[in-house]
Design goal:
Keywords: Flavoprotein, FMN, NADP, Oxidoreductase, RNA-binding, tRNA processing, tRNA-binding. The protein is of the alpha/beta class. The protein is built from 15 helices and 13 strands.
Amino acid sequence: MPAPLTLGSLTVDVPVVLAPMAGITNAAYRRLCAEQGAGLYVCEMITSRGLVEGDQHTKDMLVFDELETTRSVQLYGTDPVYVGKAAEILCAEYGVAHIDLNFGCPVPKVTRKGGGGALPWKRGLLGEILEHAVAAATPYDVPVTMKTRKGIDDDHLTYLDAGRIAQESGVAAIALHGRTVAQAYSGQADWDAIGELAASVEIPVLGNGDIWEAADALRMVEETGADGVVVGRGCLGRPWLFRDLAAAFRGEEVATLPTLGEVTAMMRRHAELLCQHMGEERGCKEFRKHVTWYLKGFAAGGQMRKSLGLVSTLADLDGLLADLDPDEPFPASELGTPRGRQGSPRDRVVLPEGWLDDADGAGCHLQEDADETTGG
C-alpha cells in the first residue's frame, strides 16, 4: 500500500487530495468530504492580486470550517511579486499549512492572459513565480506545491520541464493532470505522462484525471508510480468517494454502494453545512447546483429534480427528500463514468499574442484580474 504523502513539513496520512473547484470546494464541502475520510482538502482557487489588494470577494472565499485543522489554499497568479506577497499573507494572516499554485487552468479568460495551463510554456517566468512563492512560505515552514497539465497542446508539451523547474525551485510536490489545455476536460487522461513525470523527478508526483472510483486511484498509483492522487470531478455528488479512497489505500474493503436513502442523508448534511456557513437562504441556493450530481442515474422524476433545484429552506428540502424511495439501490450503470463537465477539445488555445515565440524568456508579467476565480 502507498505510504503517507509527505509534503515538506506536512504529512497526509492517505495520499489523496481534493482538487480545488470554483463554486464547489468551499468550507462546507471540504468539511463534508473530510467527514468521509482522511486526505488533503484544498480551498477554491483565489487570485494572488485579489488577496494582495484586499479584494472583498477574494477574502470571502478564504473561509475555513472550525474543524479544518489543515488549511490548504490554491493560488493563481502570473506575476512573481504578487504571488510571493500573496503566499506570505496566507501564511502570516490565515495560518495556512499548504499552498498550491495553479498552472493547469484551461479556461480561455485565464490562458489569454498567459495564466493557468499556458504559463509553464514560459520556463523563466514559471521558475520565478515558484521561487518567490517558496521564499515567502519557507520562513513559516509551509510547503508549496504546483498543479499543471501536460502542456498547451500536443505540439507544445511542458510537463517534464515544469517538473524539473519545480524541483529546482524547492517545490514540495507537483500534480499533473494528464490532459493538455486544448483537451480541457474531454477525452481520456494520459496516465503514461504521469508515469513519465514520476520517473523524471525526485519530488512527489500526484496524478490527476479520470479517477471515478477508488479502484481507479489504486490503479493509477500502481501503473504510474505516482505518490498519490488528486480527485476533482469524480467526487461531485459523491463525497463518500473519500471514504472509499481511504479504505482502499489502507487495504480495507471498500464500502458497499449507498442506497438512495444514504444519498439523501448526505444531501441533507451537505445543505446543512452550507447553511451553517452561509445562512439558510444562500446555503440552499448554493446547494441547488449539486442536486443533479447527487441524483445522477437514480429514478427521481423530472418534477422532483426541478423542485429540489428550487429549494429555499431546509424544511422544504426535508419534505422533498422524504418522498424519495430510501431503498432504491445505487445505479451501478454510473460506476466508472465521467461526472461534471467534459466538453470538446479546442481547435485553438487562446494565448497572448506571440506567446509561443519564446519559451525561455520570463515573458511579460501579465496582470490577472483581482476577482478571477476558476478551476484547473
